[in-house]
Amino acid sequence: GQTQFGICIARVRQQHQGQDEASIYQAILSQCQSKREITKDDEVKR
Domain of life of the organism in this record (predicted)? Predict the structure, then answer.
């Protein structure tokens, strides 16, 4: 769940050290699928 998501974020941040937040954020979104975020997006579309 959330713990795994947090670990994934930490890993991506490490891999992209020194890059700007926007790039890191995009990488997190593409590599770390958060069930909660996806659900929130689905609610917005409905």
Answer: Eukaryota
